[in-house]
């Protein structure tokens, strides 16, 4: 549709790529919602992480008052902090495992869309870059294009820009982005803590 | 001495708001410019994220419409956007950055998303308007 409206433009294909990316992002979030976000186990996990990270934060910021109680409270406080930290790490790991399930489905969808776009725009310049990208980026931005003009932009680079910016902002807008506490607690493969073993 | 705003003062209120929506809570617009308001990490992060995205779109539209050509304008965008973010939290809100994990954490908020969004808008406007 976009292509028909703007067919007089030389680079109207870029609108098609953006439109398809927006659509894909919405579909991916819908899949994630069905598989993860609406389930009660995800909700409880998320609230656990939020609570634990907030608790940890307040525990670390509040200083013990009273000189006499200081030694005793310091010891018990570190123990408490350790405990909360471990539970936070465990919950974050559970959350990542949980996300892996829908991540697989989303990856398949993204891969299929990429293949579809590739067949549509193979060897075609979909946009003109207003800058000359770095050598490493050129491999992607000039992928499958002939000619030496490095400001020619292939579909792959545009799709990459779209998928990152649109998806991140859509997730943020819908409130689906991972809780901040989880990022601090380590992902799926946390670095083993020598203290705990 | 600068008054330090404790995150736990409004913890209950924030938790309540957080459960309501999960991200941008329906807070008052006046709070965005109120140096006395207390912020929790999530709220401030969200606000900074969205400011960065708006700056990215505006810069992308401007750069593409003029049009500005060359890699140096990417650097100008990064400096401008980080400068706006820094000025916002350090000058307008006057938050204590240590409470939120330091300058690096606050300045990184939404950086990559805004960078790709800026490149996207710039490229789109440039390609569509000038060819």
Would you give an account of this structure?
The complex is a heterodimer of chains A (197) and B (131). With 197 residues, chain A is mainly α. Helix content of chain A is 69%, strand content 2%. Chain A starts with a helix and ends in a 13-residue tail after the last helix. Residues 184-197 of chain A have low confidence and may be disordered. Chain B is mainly α. Chain B has one domain (38-129). Helix content of chain B is 63%, strand content 0%. Chain B is built from five helices and no strands. Chain A binds chain B through residues 6, 9-12, 14-15, 18, 47, 50, 54, 57-58, 61-62, 127-132, 153, 158, 160-162, 164-165, 168-169, 172-175, 177, 180, and chain B through 6-8, 11, 15, 18-19, 21-23, 41-42, 45-46, 49-50, 53, 63-64, 67-71, 73-74, 99, 110, 112-114, 116-117, 119-120, 122-124, 126-128, 130-131.
How is the topology of this model organized?
The complex is a heterodimer of chains A (197) and B (131).
Chain A: H1 2-5, H2 13-37, H3 40-61, H4 70-121, E1 127-128, H5 135-141, E2 152-153, H6 155-174, H7 180-184
Antiparallel strand pairs in A: 1-2
Helix pairs in contact in A: 2-4, 2-6, 3-4
Chain B: H1 11-21, H2 41-65, H3 72-92, H4 102-108, H5 111-129
Helix pairs in contact in B: 2-3, 2-5
